[in-house]
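Quick one, tokens below:
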């Protein structure tokens, strides 16, 4: 991750705006937090996997079918990284043959916690635009 100097952050702020009153340190912390969140999603096929899991695809083989051109190893590595970062949960079922399913965790929890805020913000934006 490239370091951002305080001078560079100051250039990003407009004079007279509420953001201009924020210290450069808080700007840097915000940038670092966003960078950390984006790093969770960076990598081959991660966003695609999240998209398909959100649409209901949860089995390993089915996820692989949804990603033409993806190797099994790269997809498995991406799923493991998402599991490690707390975005995806992996469940193994004691069946013959063994069944493995993945499900979204953090995104669904976030959606549940913020659903009312999102709906309210969308309604306010629609009312303002009308």
């Amino acid at each position: 991750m490239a370091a951002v100097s305080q001078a560079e952050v100051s250039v990003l702020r407009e004079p007279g705006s509420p953001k201009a009153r924020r210290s450069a340190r808080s700007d840097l912390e915000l940038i670092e937090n966003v960078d950390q969140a984006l790093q969770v999603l960076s990598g081959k096929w991660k966003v695609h996997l999240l998209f398909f899991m959100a649409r209901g695809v949860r089995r390993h083989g089915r996820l692989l079918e949804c990603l033409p051109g993806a190797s099994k190893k790269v997809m498995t590595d991406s799923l493991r990284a998402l599991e490690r970062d707390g975005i995806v949960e992996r469940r193994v079922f004691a069946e013959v043959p063994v069944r493995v399913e993945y499900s979204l965790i953090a995104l669904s929890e976030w959606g549940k916690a913020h659903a009312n805020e999102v709906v309210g913000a969308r309604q306010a934006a629609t009312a303002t635009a009308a």
